[in-house]
Amino acid sequence: MRVPDIARKAQITAVNKTAAKIQTQFRRELSGETGIKQKEFKSQVKLFKATARNRRARVWFGRRRGIRLKRLVNSPSSKFDDLARGTLHGRSGADAFQATVRTGSGNSGSSIGFFVRKGRGRLPISQVRVRFNDNEIAPDALNRAGSRVGPEEYRVQFARDMDRRLRNTASAARRSRSRR
């Protein structure tokens, strides 16, 4: 294996490990800003790894469905007001109600959430969810996490991986010489 091949592979590994650290730091930042537990954001943050063909890793945030409003109730009140604004499907906060809804078939389970009525009648209802990709909190937190963690972490990971790969090639060369 030539040194340029080792360096190229070490770059890809370093980029992926750095992106994973940025992803973790981003979830921490978002949790600190909103008061919501990190595990609620885990399914919303996705890591696209770098490959030999595409040498760029990306941290992506967002999904079609937001976080249920029920999860925000325990967050600090000032943050709750800011996050809940604009999520009630055009209704006022007085129109929202808490309900227990059966999930699954039969009596397998139930879930508690906040709902608003879609029309004038009793049904249909829709669960109120907060979408973070529509407001400024998520992009700012991602930029802060990337600039804080990214450059230094990449240097550390690249040096560590180059060292590991060079040690492995040297030990492989010694083993092949001893077999002769």
How would you characterize the overall build of this protein?
The structure is a single chain. The chain has 3 helices and 7 strands, in the order H-E-E-E-H-E-E-E-E-H. By secondary structure, the protein is α+β, with helices and mostly antiparallel strands. The protein has a domain at 3-65 and 135-178. The longest helix has 42 residues, at 137-178. The radius of gyration is 24 Å and the shape is elongated.
What does this entry show, briefly?
The chain is of the alpha+beta class. It has helices at residues 3-34, 77-84, 137-178; strands spanning 45-48, 58-61, 67-68, 97-103, 109-117, 125-127, 129-130. The chain has a domain at 3-65 and 135-178.
Number of helices: 3
Poorly predicted runs of 5 or more residues? none
Distance between the termini: 19 Å
Q: What portion of residues is helical? A: 40-55%
Q: What overall geometry do the principal axes of the alpha carbons give? A: elongated
Radius of gyration: 24 Å
Largest sheet: 3 strands, antiparallel
SSE string: HEEEHEEEEH
In total, how many beta strands? 7
Structural class: alpha+beta
User: What portion of residues belong to β-strands?
Assistant: 15-25%
